[in-house]
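re the bet — no i am not wrong, look at it urself. input seq straight from the record:
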Amino acid sequence: MDIILHTDIVIDLCDRNSPQAAASRQAIRLCQGHGGRAWIHVGSAQGLGERLRTHLLSEVGDAGQDPSARVSGIIRECLAGVQWLAALSGEGDVLDAKDPEAAQLLRAIDRFPPGGAAILTRNTAILETAPGQAMTPEAYCERTFAPPSIPFVDLAAQQDEIRPHLEKNLHRVLLHGRYVSGPEVTELEDRLARYAGVGHCVAVSSGTDALLIALMALGIGPGDEVITTPFTFIATAETIAILGARPVFVDIDPATYNIDPQGIHAAITPRTRAILPVSLYGQCADFDRINEIARRHGLAVVEDAAQSFGATYKGRPSCSLSTIGCTSFFPSKPMGCYGEGGACLTDDADLAEKMRRIRDHGQDRRYHHAVIGLNGRLDTLQAAVLLAKLEILPREIQARGRIGQRYSVLLSDVAVVPHIEPWNTSVYAQYTIQVEDRERVQAKLHGHGIPTAVHYPIPLHMQPAFSYLGYAKGDFPVAERAAERVLSLPMHPYLKEEDLERICRAVRQAVRE
């Protein structure tokens, strides 16, 4: 449960002599320790400053010191970790209220899910007006709190990092109103292309559409074959099948889970048009070997980089390693928006222009449709979110690498931990281990409040949707064995050391039992 601090609580916290400050501090610690956030509504700012200047006049000290600066310093010092809650338009319509600040807080709390927040106050009128939504710090501390959960992916912590930039970007879109193909989309494309070191980026509506649009731009269609991996999310092969082409599977490397280049040559036939490797779990496939095979046979290579944007292969960024790199901005990805999104990246100007047409119903100008396309545009609001996240992506990638390495140190003697090739860096889209008796290990971890996931439990050649391809169990033994054993643990840049150690202790105990 989040808490919104009334001005009297903030004054408690800032007054070193207040006998009630201890309870207020404890309430904030409890809130934050159980995954909640403490807020001050921006509508309280002016009144808060005025009351503090009066209330804390004796603490201001030197008469020559600027009282406003001193008060601001006290607020920052005493309220570290407390965030400003932006005011929504309807929350300012309180001029006729007896207590405008209280009216604002009561309106603000309505934006939270039912039971998701409380106003922390000692104001009797507020407590009587909203008995279920307002409480004293002492009452809050007497509540029964469930043990803090460990999120599988902590998007809330990330949002706290980017909140000012994020809210400004979203508000700008709401003001200019260009919700489709707005200026933020163009800005995002330019910045993503520079980040990946390619000439062109085409932002699209999802990672799946990125693959589909890339294959369409390459002219893949009925009767063609595209070589790919059976150990991935279905979108990789699904897009091939949607176009009437045939997915041709090649088994994976047992160490990296990526397609094994040794098997690609034998899978090539006169119908083969492209190779579609997946950079799984955040690590790039072996693109030098794959590209050399493709060059000898005149094939295009499309990187499915849904999980690897930000990773590098021999010093080169993912999405710059092949004919076209396709990535996903699904929320849980290393670079994720708040909905669906994706991008196609390439150095080929002609392919980039084809993909721009395809994503907009095949138009080369308004109402003139040069080719068959689809509605694959990225929403401007999602571009605004991604621009805010791009600011912190390098820092988050460093944190992912550090956390992934720490996991491996603690678990390498009880599980098969990720193998990162020496020429690669990984963004650890998932931290995935292999264990025997996976279901039992999962159940044990669930009992400790630790979420897990399996990426992926059924290889694509064994999925009913692909039964028409004629593959059978045993055709790709490395992928099949991985599918029976892989287990993904919580992974995100904000995973605390104590939570990581708690996870590892539980894994070690579960495996050894």
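see?? The CA atoms of residues 155 and 498 lie 19 Å apart. told u. also The chain is about 40% helix and 15% strand. so pay up
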